[in-house]
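Box 3.1 A note on notation
Throughout this textbook, protein chains are presented in two layers. The first layer is the amino acid sequence; the second is a token string describing backbone geometry. Keep the layers aligned when reading.
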Amino acid sequence: MSYPHKGQGQAQPYQQQPYQGQQAPVPAQQQAPAAVAAGYNMKRRNPAAAWLGLPIITFGIYGLVWFFKVHAELFNYDRRVGDSATNALLSMLFGAVTLGIWPLVMYVKLGGRIAQAQRAAGLQPSCSGGIGFLLGIIGFGVLYYQIQLNKIVDRYGDTPAGQQVSLAA
């Protein structure tokens, strides 16, 4: 078995320096920085339908479905954050055990998760759990959160839901 001699049969990974200086060798090809991570694009929903239309038609059941789906899509979008879809649904179903505190905490945390997803999309985070909580008290929380989620989906243009997208941060 013979080994190739220097310069034969192998690409040189570094450019040769004309003299031996104090600098480290420079890579021959500078590659563009790779994406930090990848995830799956979320579904774009009509904010008014998610907020008022479908919950009225389904007697409030769609509100639970929306809450679960949003958490699941946020996890599929950015796997660096934990999967809390089941936890979120259970908080809504059994929130009375904690006198309604657990669902409120999950609702505020949703704002933080959306802000994290906005950062991952390369957007300036504009979602606030506090504003979502205050708007939720008067019935506009789902509308606010869905508008914030749609900003992330709009960032990727016509990319369909479930299609892999790159994350910026």
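DSSP finds six helices and two strands in the chain. The chain has one domain: 37-167.
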